[in-house]
User: What shape does this take?
Amino acid sequence: MSATQLAALARTTDPRIMLRRFLTMDAVVTGVNGLAYLTAAGPLGRFLGVDSGLLRALGAFLVVYAAAVALLASRERPPTLSVRAVIDANLLWAVLSLVALAAWLTPSTAGAVWTVLQALAVAGFAAVQYIAVRATGH
Assistant: This one.
């Protein structure tokens, strides 16, 4: 992704604002996903072919994680070490999602597609956050 494409996506050329916006987008998407897993675990579990208990546990984790990322995004200058931890966590989530799909999950077709799509989205967040944090000079 070029710097121009990244700036267009973030709607700014200021690297600090860009980073904070990508963190905020991550927090919002993750939080909505987590809340959906918590509040609709039964219907979503049946649709995705995933145990509703697993969805509730993932939902609780995602809501807490989203709150932490939102707090980080609210800082004028998010600490680089914390941002890199978010990037690493996002990459780990993406990889583990695909490993779980291949190794032990037996979801419906919709669940398999969802797992791959969310892994790609999370990896995408990691990528734009990495580019943005590098653009800040750290």
